[in-house]
Amino acid sequence: MTALNDLVRPDRYPRSSRYDPAWLVGLDMGPNPLWLLEDLVRNLELRPGMRVLDLGSGKGATSVFLAREYGVDVVAADWWIPAEDAAAVFTEAGVADRVEAIRTEAHVLPFEPESFDAIVSIDAFEYFGTADNYLPYLTGFLRPGGQLGIATPAMTREVRELGAIPAHVKRVVGWEAMAWHTAEWWRFLWEITGLVDVTSARLQEDAWRDWLLWTRVCAAQHPDGLAVHQPVIDMLTEDAGEYLSFALVTARKK
Ligand SMILES: C[S@@+](CC[C@H](N)C(=O)[O-])C[C@H]1O[C@@H](n2cnc3c(N)ncnc32)[C@H](O)[C@@H]1O
Prior knowledge:
Layout: H1 21-26, H2 33-41, E1 51-55, H3 61-70, E2 73-78, H4 83-92, E3 99-103, E4 116-122, H5 125-128, H6 134-139, E5 142-155, H7 159-162, H8 167-173, H9 183-191, E6 196-203, H10 207-221, H11 225-239, E7 244-253
Parallel strand pairs: 1-2, 1-4, 2-3, 4-5
Antiparallel strand pairs: 5-7, 6-7
Helix pairs in contact: 8-11, 10-11
The structure holds S-adenosylmethionine.
Residues 29-30, 33, 56-58, 61-62, 78-81, 105-106, 122-124, 127-128 line the site of S-adenosylmethionine.
């Protein structure tokens, strides 16, 4: 059985490994968000005091991490999770003075233009960010020179190019896999606007293994965990990295 301690991997994720795996699994909404964020930030420059929007922040683990690890002020914006629930996580983590929870939909963000130094989005952009007009909308909230970084489920080849969603993915994810793209697809979508310089667009190394490990640990932690997580475990095991990955994409507003 996969144990909580398997999530402590200081060689690969030194900062994430300082967090209690039970706390993190308790906030589970998808594959290890701290690993994704820690890897993504390798391509960003975050400095203390910056104002950062964590878009699609879920139950808030990534917002806690941003505040603690990089000393930034965070607005944690999410649609499914009530702001009070996220705020309770921030209070318990001792970062309530630096992280504000807001419940909002990603197309009607209640912020001033050019009011953020950076926007990050972990395992959320696939739900709202694939339309041609979304990057132009979102970058309106970034100051000139501000940074954007996303980690999003990805494919190693475009579904359009394959002609169909691979059967083992379609069985579990359905049509939503149409929002899973290659890193190069994101690079083109963003760069063609002329609004940003894409500073990196890569697939996370061994993303499927990280995702599988996380899912196995989550499955082992709850009485009905296996029933909930087995389809994803089967999908990732069958895939073995042929198609499934995570894209880490960063850009700087001109
Ligand atoms: C898979 S969860 C990931 C949450 C968190 N970032 C994490 O990694 O634990 C996806 C998140 O995207 C948010 N989301 C989905 N559609 C959204 C939308 N249209 N506007 C704002 N947030 C949205 C959901 O509320 C949800 O918390």
